[in-house]
Structure formats: C-alpha cells, structure tokens
Design goal:
Layout: E1 41-43, H1 51-63, E2 67-74, H2 76-79, H3 82-94, E3 103-105, E4 119-124, E5 128-131, E6 146-150, E7 154-161, E8 171-179, E9 183-187, E10 193-199, E11 204-213, E12 216-222, E13 230-238, E14 243-250, H4 256-259, H5 265-268, E15 276-280, H6 295-312, E16 317-321, E17 327-328, E18 332-333, H7 336-351, E19 354-356, H8 358-362, H9 367-373, H10 386-411
Parallel strand pairs: 2-14, 2-15, 15-16, 16-19
Antiparallel strand pairs: 1-19, 3-13, 4-7, 5-6, 6-13, 7-12, 8-11, 8-13, 9-12, 10-11, 17-18
Helix pairs in contact: 3-10, 6-7
Amino acid sequence: MICICGTTTWLLSTGTSTPHQPKAVLLDRSHSFIQYDLNKIDFYGDKMVWDGFFMKMNQLVFSGEGHVSILHMGGSHVQAGTLTDRIRENFVTMVDGLEAERGFIFPYKLAGTNSPSSIRTKFTGAWDGCRNALSTDHCFWGMSGINATTCDSVASFKIWCFNHDSLNYYNSHVRVFHSGDNYTIEPDSAIQVWTSKRRLDMGATDFYFAAPVDTLSFNIYRNDSLPGCFVMQGIYLGENRDGITYNTIGVNGAGTYSYLRCEMLDEQLPTINPDLVIFGIGVNDANVPEENFDARKYELRYDSLITQIKGVNPDVSFLFITNNDTYYQKRYPNRNAMKVQEVMVKLAKKHSAGVYDLFDIMGGLGSIKEWQNAGLAQSDKVHLTRDGYRLQADMMYLAMREAFGNYLYRTTPK
C-alpha cells in the first residue's frame, strides 16, 4: 500500500516498495513578479493518454525497473544545455538516482557552435557547421537539425559527457549518425570493439564495445581519391541500464519550420523512441512583427511534427512549454508570445497534451524586464541567465512531480 500525503511527499510507502524521498527543491520566493501559484502542468483532452508515461515512472520509482525515454526539443534554450542539464539532474533524483544512458547528443563544437558544458569535444581536421535554423543553409539533416562536415582525408574527434556529479557516463553501445559513403569511421585502437554494424536504413553505424568506455575517440578516413565529405549528424550514447534517459535536440534559432526540414527525422527518431516529448519550440517562430505571425501556420507545423513523432510511438505523451516573455529586437514586449500560448492550448486539447505555461508563470507580458533586473535574464531580453534557467528547471521539476503525485493519488486504492 502506498501512502499519498500530499503531492510533495508522494514517495512515502509501505510494504515491499523501497521508500524514497524525492529531491528537495527550495525555491527563492522573494521575486514578487513570479506567479508561483501558477507553477503547474495543465492537462487537456483525455488525461488517460498520460497514464502510460506515469505507469512507467511508477514502475521505476517503486521497483527500480524499466526505462523511460524523454525528448526535449527547442532552440537556443535547449542547445545551451543549462536548462536541460538541470532538468535531467532533477528527473534522475525523482527516481532515486536511476540514471540510464546519456542518450542522444550532438558534438556542437565540431560544427563551430556553443555546446552544453556537460559535453566535451576535441577534434582534428577542418569542420564546418550547417544548421536547419538558417534559411541560407541547405543540407541533408538528421533528427539533430545540425550537421558537422569535414572533407579532409583524415580527421578525428574525441567526446565525453558527464552528469551533475561530474562523473563521466559509461557507454557500451554507441550509434553514430553520419553520411559519407567513401569514408570509414572507427573507434581508436585503444577501445576494444566487440562488433560494429552499418545501418543504412537510418544513416548510422553501431559500435558495441567489449567493455563500457567513458571517453570515445573516433578516427575518420577517406577510402579513395574520389571527392566527398564525411557528415556527422549526431550520436546516441547507450548503456542499456534501467532508469531515465533525458535526450535533447536543440539548435540556435530553430523554429517549428526548422525541424520539418530534417529529412531523416522519421528514420532516426526510433533510436530515442520517446515516451514523453517536451516541446519548447516557439520563441523563434514568434520573433517577427506582430502582424507577420501566422498562428494557423504555426499550429499546422506543430501538427506535422506531432504526426511524425506519433508514427514512431503512438502512445507518446506531449508537454508544451509556452514561450518565455521576450522583447522584440530589444525594443518592446513581444505580444506574439500570447498567440503562441493560445496555439499551444489548442494543440494540447487536440492531442491530449499538457501545457506548462512559462509565460504566465514568469509574470506575463513585459516580465522579462523584471527577470533581467533580478539577474535572471540576459540583456537581450530573450535568454535567461544561468540562475534563471536553473530556476525554470526547478519549477518545472516541481510541476512534473506534482502531476505524478496526482496520478498516484488517482490510481492508488484508498
């Protein structure tokens, strides 16, 4: 029998389950402009759609068994990693430290752009980046929406990732998404490979190691004198452990239109096979003059993305994060954020999704100025500071924890 004593202490238990108290998050409630009472997830449509995700979480929490895959998609808020690394840390503590594999990453430094601090990359050779967010870039993208390309005859890269305890993730299986038919990619000779397999169906090569490794080194060779290039599209770091895998896909400047340019999304997304997709795509869609924002087209683009993802997992749950308040060109509050808010609620009703209303929680139109004055937002009035992103991550964690607690209360025999 499980004792539910309010949504903040849902992990008190009796019987065979092992008691576990979730991570304590103490929010600084001194900011009068933040609407802390709105910090929750609003569910629309058929709430039972979320039961599959919560059932998997329940199994992890109380038996320590199973695997939950989460995918967080967005733009620069996601690529930078400050927000998502903190959310990943919080989610893991939600299930008593059950941290599964690192999951999908992109070695952003290869593409000459900023990287989450939890991903480290070193490389040799000349590499160029190509982003789905740039209308001037025209590439064949995978699900990451970003490519790193080298045309050198010999190149290499080394990559390692670590968690919030500064411990490296170990990997027993790595899937490298790439193209370049006249190139060979292989791990450094110091890494013992049990077997490898080319996956033409998804544009990838699988490597299975004889023993888990925490630092990956790959060498890339051109096989002939014919012209060609090697294109990196992303890496999945696997360990086949029970727990939560928090995957992120983020490209600076990306909007919903950007990810619809990813021609290999359908083929590569089954690697992640998400149970929950967190959508934070909207700031760049809305970064136009108010009269130029087409809410209907924005909605249709999201519908297309949702259809693609449901084709991978029909039982997937969706959570929309409304835009944070921003200023348009630093001059005036961007009212398109309210149109994004309306569209996301409409989408949530249509697809039985959840909405985390960051816009209202922040304080609504113009509140980014208050966040900036409090050291929580940057001077561009678009991005948050490290403290701001960590505050957002902690509030989202508490909202998700409350939603899970409500599910347990609803489904536990009284």
